[in-house]
Design a protein that fits this description.
Number of strands: 0
Helix content: 55-70%
Shape: rod-shaped
Strand content: under 5%
Number of domains: 1
Oligomer: single chain
Distance between the termini: 42 Å
Largest sheet: none
Radius of gyration: 21 Å
Structural class: mainly alpha
Length: 123
């Protein structure tokens, strides 16, 4: 049998301080997500430059193979990190709801579990 969680109650001053901390955390987590996405994009770009540059320069395939293999391990590691941060973000949103702070929408509809993401335009 699961327990129903009820929002916790805080004084107006405490609620205001919690909201301020929540706003800073939300910005930091969103920035972290963006930076990880940018790292994945950059790693993919490195792969394109390595392989495309080798082809354009007509260099043997063996040259740079080790670097390409290293990169092939970096990308899934970055993707796994992204998944961990997304999970952390979802947990933080649940925690915010539990303490009565409304989590701001940041441009994307948050999908349910195993549901494809659908970006939405805000504004």
């Amino acid at each position: 049998m699961s327990k129903s969680l009820h929002p916790l109650e805080y004084s107006a001053g405490a609620q205001s301080r919690l909201a301020a901390v929540g706003a800073v955390l939300a910005e930091d987590v969103n920035q972290l997500e963006r930076l990880i996405d940018e790292a994945i994009i950059r790693a993919s770009s490195i792969g394109q430059t390595l392989t495309g540059g080798r082809l354009d320069a007509r260099i043997a395939a063996g040259l740079g193979q080790g670097v390409l293999e290293d990169l092939a391990q970096v990308i899934p590691t970055a993707v796994a990190l992204r998944g961990q941060v997304v999970g952390m973000h979802a947990r933080m949103e649940r925690m915010a709801g539990r303490i009565g702070i409304e989590a701001p929408s940041c441009g994307y509809e948050k999908p349910g579990e195993n549901v494809p993401e659908k970006p939405r335009v805000i504004g």
